[in-house]
Amino acid sequence: MLKKILKSYDYSLIIVVALLCLFGLVMVYSASMVTWHGVDSDFFYNKQKFNLVAAMFVFILAALFPYKAMKSTKILLPMVILTLSGLLILFVVGKVAGNALSWIEVGARSIQPSELAKLSVIIYLSAVYAKKQSYINEFNKGVLPPLLFLVMVFFLIAVQPDFGTAGIIMLIAAAIILSSGMNFKNIMKLVMIVTILLVPVSLILKDEVFSERRLERLTSYSNPFDDEQKSGYQLANAYYAIGSGGLTGLGLGQSNQKLGYLPEAHTDFIIAVISEELGIFGVGFVLLSLAFIVLKGIHIGLKCKDPFGSLLAIGIASMIGIQSFVNLGGASGVIPLTGVPLPFVSYGGSSLLQLAIATGILVNVSMFVKYEEKYKKDKTAQPKPAKAVVNQNSVKFRL
């Protein structure tokens, strides 16, 4: 049994995730090795190395833990309580970073509850909508109740204010809802309700939503060189880094923009450093690896016959894909900047731990899909048992 289970793991997915994380560790060191941060050249590297070891541990646990057990109320209820408690505690002991009250300091380290909230929303919505499959199109009973948790999480993150993460969570939820099996009529009702709810939220948070800083982000991303020293500073320097890399790059560790010109070089803008140092080949490796993980997750979701496993896989794949697009789109000027890390590559413990748990769950879903396929094939491949046929005084056997 154990041998069959181990053979059923998707090692291609595990290898790609591991390679991307190791590549990210190298690039975090390269992007933060200069001392203008006021710390040792290996400060962020050592912290990310610790984060990676912790991530490897939780990845193994998540990959071994049967995903079907997560839809139990004994797991879902504590998860919901911990998620909401973590987001509420921020308003008491939270630390402001990047103009948002997003962090809780635990000793020498910080935790970002909103990162873990992404995974909680995926697990909760997948579990509840999987249970409601028999009446998924009954709007008041099958559609609305699970959204209360989503609305609470969205509001608590939006008021930090962290609109980037709040928006990503809503898009992840939308992907799960669209895949849940509910009809188009109910989906359109949800769109109308969300639109109506966003009006009072926008009014409550109007000072933050329409703050000068955020409006500058919207106006400067289309042409950052109009105000290169102020609102367009980050994006303009990202362009310089990306443009100077060319096809082959300047060489690992040779970036010029990381020498104090490019803010957040080891976090939000790490793709710019990768482009400058490793050129199109480094960027291509990141893009292909992320695309492989996302497409593999969608493939697992489509193959899984269990509604919960299918929604989990699609939700996790959507989260990685959406977050990758938001980070890469912001760094390249396709969309306004939102301060979202690049999955598996950017520096950050909370993000890496959450992604490790998520991909561990994805690997576990894949394992069950492969194991059940092999088990069914083995059963159908077995010869039919011999049947006894009584013919007068003799007994004949035939297959």
UniProtKB/TrEMBL annotation:
Q: Does the keyword Transmembrane apply?
A: yes
Q: Name one GO molecular function term.
A: peptidoglycan glycosyltransferase activity
UniProt-listed GO biological process terms: cell division; peptidoglycan biosynthetic process; regulation of cell shape
GO annotation, cellular component aspect: cell division site; plasma membrane
Q: How does it sit in the membrane?
A: Multi-pass membrane protein
EC numbers for this chain: 2.4.99.28
Where can this protein be found? Answer: Membrane
Broadest EC class?
A: transferase
Which keywords describe this protein according to UniProt?
A: Cell cycle, Cell division, Cell shape, Glycosyltransferase, Membrane, Peptidoglycan synthesis, Transferase, Transmembrane, Transmembrane helix
Coarsely, its chief localization is membrane
PROSITE patterns named in the record: FTSW_RODA_SPOVE
**Residue ranges crossing the lipid bilayer per the database entry:** 12-30, 50-67, 79-104, 110-130, 142-159, 165-182, 187-205, 269-295, 307-326, 346-369
Reaction(s) this enzyme catalyzes, per UniProt: [GlcNAc-(1->4)-Mur2Ac(oyl-L-Ala-gamma-D-Glu-L-Lys-D-Ala-D-Ala)](n)-di-trans,octa-cis-undecaprenyl diphosphate + beta-D-GlcNAc-(1->4)-Mur2Ac(oyl-L-Ala-gamma-D-Glu-L-Lys-D-Ala-D-Ala)-di-trans,octa-cis-undecaprenyl diphosphate = [GlcNAc-(1->4)-Mur2Ac(oyl-L-Ala-gamma-D-Glu-L-Lys-D-Ala-D-Ala)](n+1)-di-trans,octa-cis-undecaprenyl diphosphate + di-trans,octa-cis-undecaprenyl diphosphate + H(+)
Q: Which PANTHER family match?
A: CELL CYCLE PROTEIN, PEPTIDOGLYCAN GLYCOSYLTRANSFERASE FTSW-RELATED
Family listed: Belongs to the SEDS family. FtsW subfamily.
Q: State its role.
A: Peptidoglycan polymerase that is essential for cell division.
Q: What protein does this entry describe?
A: Probable peptidoglycan glycosyltransferase FtsW
* Organism whose genome encodes this protein: Mesobacillus boroniphilus JCM 21738
